[in-house]
Write the structure tokens for this entry.
Amino acid sequence: MSGVLAGSSNTLGRVGIYDCHVHSAVSADSEMPPQDAIARAQALGVGLCFTEHVDFECSSDKCFAADISQYLTDYEQYRSDTVLLGAEVGLTYNSRAASRKAVSDDRLDFIIGSVHIVRDYDLFMPEFYEQDLPWEDIYRQYFAFTIKVIEHCEYFDSLGHIDYISRYSRFDIKNVEYNTFRKEYDKIFEMLIDRGKVLELNTRRLGDPSAAKCLYSVYEGYYNRGGRYVTVGSDAHSTEVIGANFDIAADIAKRIGLNICYFKNRRLRV
Ligand SMILES: [Zn+2]
Ligand SMILES: [Zn+2]
């Protein structure tokens, strides 16, 4: 892979993966100085793409819509072959025009599209899971909304953390199994492939063996529908998370036959 960092001797360096999901102090929920993130990625032998939040709908009092133009200007000094500048845009229906405009800056290397909000429910908050419905129907609401926003939001390259709901679910059953929701997963995969987009393999939950097993089936399903590329991202908000579980992600991708890619100038690279 072309992402190998010269001189690196550790396993990740030989794999040459880019961590394509990293937040720094530009994002409202991170205080990580960009220099610290870059130093950590270099020490690990991984590339790095900053993906700062652009969310126009969220339940927090903080502003999660970074000023992308200002961020790109400020961070231009850090850009290199192994340090790229991207964004993570919240996929919403009502604010899609503002989101599209916010990520239209052609200096962006890469855009993750992520579902953080389903209709008016912030998935981080308990209310979504307290609706008077069976747990399967609540998970199906998440999928239905994801399908709707993929249909209407064309301005992203990789669909972020498909298992995001499992992070915050208040149900005993947190893993969203491929076999239980196959129809919904397959629809999402077909839409992404039809639109030339890829799927992120988010490493946040891969340290949990039951989550890794569930996600293996999900990404195998993606492969079986024709998916061939994944970006890999830690969703780091602090230095110790950068590159976390990348050995597990690389193993999953290899066993399934998926190619780990990254984006530069909005173009897929491997
Ligand atoms: Zn996210
Ligand atoms: Zn993120």
Notes: Residues 88, 114, 116, 160-161 surround zinc ion (ligand 1) (CB under 6 Å). Residues 1-11 have pLDDT under 50 and may be disordered. The longest strand covers residues 47-54. The chain is about 35% helix and 20% strand.
